Amino acid sequence: MSNLDMTEAIRMLAGDRGISVDSLLQVLVEALATAYKKRPGAAEEVIVGINPENMDITFTAYDVDDDGNWINERDDTPNKRRRRWQLDQRARRHAKQGRPRSHCGSNVPPGNEPAHPRS
Q1: Residues contacting 1, CB < 8 A, separation 6+
Q2: How far apart (Å, rounded) are the C-alpha atoms in residues 102 and 26?
Q3: What is the number of other CB atoms lying within 10 angstroms of the CB of residue 103?
Q4: Across residues 27-49, what is the average pLDDT?
Q5: CATH number of the domain that 13 lies in?
Q6: pLDDT of the residue at 34
């Protein structure tokens, strides 16, 4: 999905839900931060940023010292090229297993897919 497509999808979803684009982006930021923290080896704290003009997403990670201070600020934004390669590899594995492409990246065990997968 291109950033232009994502911008349009965000606008459409916000309109469908009757909320502002800013509110939807805030929900997305919070969801991405929660998901980030569940990754193995993730930093203790993260600030997720979304540029509403081009939908670029950034992850600024922090460690927390014994006093609760956020330290060691660093960019932990996933590499888009590497992520695309990982998704392509996963799609190939799923194709070999006979799993639908729409389930790539899901945690649904083979044979338990919904009857009408989302496309």
Answers
A1: 9
A2: 26
A3: 19
A4: 94
A5: 3.30.1480.10
A6: 96
H helix intervals, 1-119? 3-17, 21-37, 80-96
**CB within 8 A of 76, min separation 6: which ones?**
36, 42, 43, 46, 59, 60, 61
Specify the pTM. Answer: 0.61
Structure tokens that stand for 68 in this block: 């609760």
Can you give the residue range of the structural domain that contains 39? 3-78
C-beta neighbour count of 61 within 10 angstroms: 19
Strand partners for 57? 50
- Predicted local distance difference test score (pLDDT) of residue 2: 66
Cβ atoms of 78 and 84 within 8 Å: the answer is: no
- For Cα atoms 84, 75, 33, give the angle at the middle one, nearest 5 degrees: 75
Domain count, the chain: 1
Q: Which two tokens stand for residue 106?
A: 């899901």
